[in-house]
Amino acid sequence: MSRVALVVGISGITGSNLAQELVKQGWITYGLARNPYISMEGLQPIAADLLNPESLAAALVSISPTQVFFTSWTRMHTEAENIRVNAAMVRNLLNALAPKKSVQHMALVTGLKHYLGPFEAYAQQGFLPETPLREEQPRLDIENFYYAQEDEVYAAAVRDGFTWSVHRPHTVIGKAVGNQMNLGTTLAVYAAICHETGRPFQFPGSEAQWNGLSDVTDARVLAKHLVWASTTEGARNEAFNIVNGDYFRWKWLWPRLATWFGVEAMGFDRTIRPLEVEIANDAPVWREITERHGLLEPDLDKLASAWHTDLDLGRPIEVMTDMSKSRKLGFLEYQSTEDSFFDLFTQLRTDRLIP
Hints:
42% helix, 15 helices, alpha/beta, Rossmann fold, 2 domains, 7-stranded parallel β-sheet
């Protein structure tokens, strides 16, 4: 029986890399987004609004997926609004698919805010969680749209008889233009601006992040993890952390990133220097750089998400993630984090998005 995948959020880092992996493995692959028309051989794009049930019903009328991969979210001004909107997106999709009775497995991508708290209270809710973060750690007693999304999946799984998996990556490193959480590309753009203007490549975050241990998730590893969980008996109805498999300290990695771009690395100097402030006036500078080098995206805001990078690098604790649960079940993929960044930078340069 053919495996038919529906990737929700195809234009994002996770969704686009997942679709590439599915197509490579021979899946029939549909990609859903409001504007899904990305160039990918073997992908069948679907335009639909997750907040519009009529739009979803019309777009999915002839599609009966066996596996659904939900990688999308919308940022709102408060966590209460995040909960209302992002839970509705999951609920509307599963309600639209329910009459088909085709779905065998639903994979939901969330993240480490499951353990750290939402953006409004990011690691500041009165305690610091134990690290490495482990899947058995309980939910926080605080509003969190990840929990609301999970609950929608759990309820629909009982109603419709499919299995599920929840995937919790750390910061995802990979290419996507216009993504709301894009640390790798944000740092690449910042480094390119530093190179062109002669400014130092200043670490923007906290002392805890500079000196402490951390990890990240390569989008390609996350894609393999999603496919693995959706096709592995022992991985059904489980939540999983997913990271590269190595640990690093930013004080080790930062100079290496600077060397790749040929800029001067400046480390933590006892002051958090938010990147959102550092590049606040650089939109005209970036436009000039793109014109000079013939780059394809002159809009700085479509490449850089400084607010998210500041949240990640400004946390008051070191953050690393335990992968034992997946390893015990047979998922053994590993990715060098240094190479994750360098591969991304090379791709961005090849695609004429950075000089």
